Amino acid sequence: GMGGVGKTTLLKKINNEFLTTSNDFEVVIWAVVSKSPDIEKIQQVIWNKLEIPRDKWETRSSREEKAAEILRVLKRKRFIMLLDDIWEGLDLLEMGVPRPDTENKSKIVFPTPPIP
């Protein structure tokens, strides 16, 4: 949607609601994507939420190795991921995020990008 209509505010409210009330999700992840997505920065946000041990994370040198580690952990969790400030398509598997389906019951929430 258009800039300034409250997409980020709404996502923050949703995030806070999931963090403060009991729900079916094991992990709630909030990540800001921005116009030029920094995949490694988003991976760092996910890593922090998943509490992957630092030594395990630091031995993963490439973005692909980090994605594999995130995927290994997230595949076993029911998660909700809130992605803010998306301007273009994003490859979830490139970050290590499994596609939500009826089996894992995870969810990904993102507002539509601003209209140019």
Structure, described:
β2, α5 and β3 (107-109) form a beta-alpha-beta unit. The model has no long low-confidence stretch (mean pLDDT 88). Helices cover 41% and strands 13% of the residues. It has a three-stranded parallel β-sheet. It has 116 residues and is of the alpha/beta class. It has a domain at 37-115. α2 (39-50) packs parallel to α4.
List keywords for this structure.
116 residues; alpha/beta; 3-stranded parallel β-sheet; 5 helices; 3 strands; 13% strand; globular; P-loop_NTPase; plant defense; ADP binding
Secondary structure layout plus pairing:
Elements: H1 7-20, E1 27-32, H2 39-50, H3 54-58, H4 63-74, E2 79-84, H5 92-95, E3 107-109
From the spread of the alpha carbons, the general shape counts as: globular
Helix content: 40-55%
Average pLDDT metric: 88
Separate helix tally = 5
Low-pLDDT stretches are none
Topology, number of strands: 3
User: Rg to the nearest angstrom?
Assistant: 14 Å
The largest beta-sheet arranges its strands as 1-2-3
For the report, how would you describe the main beta sheet? 3 strands, parallel
Cα-to-Cα separation, first versus last residue: 10 Å
Which class do the helix and strand fractions yield? Answer: alpha/beta
User: What proportion strand?
Assistant: 5-15%
Organism: Vitis amurensis
Protein name: Resistance protein candidate
Domain NB-ARC: 1-112
GO molecular function, one term: ADP binding
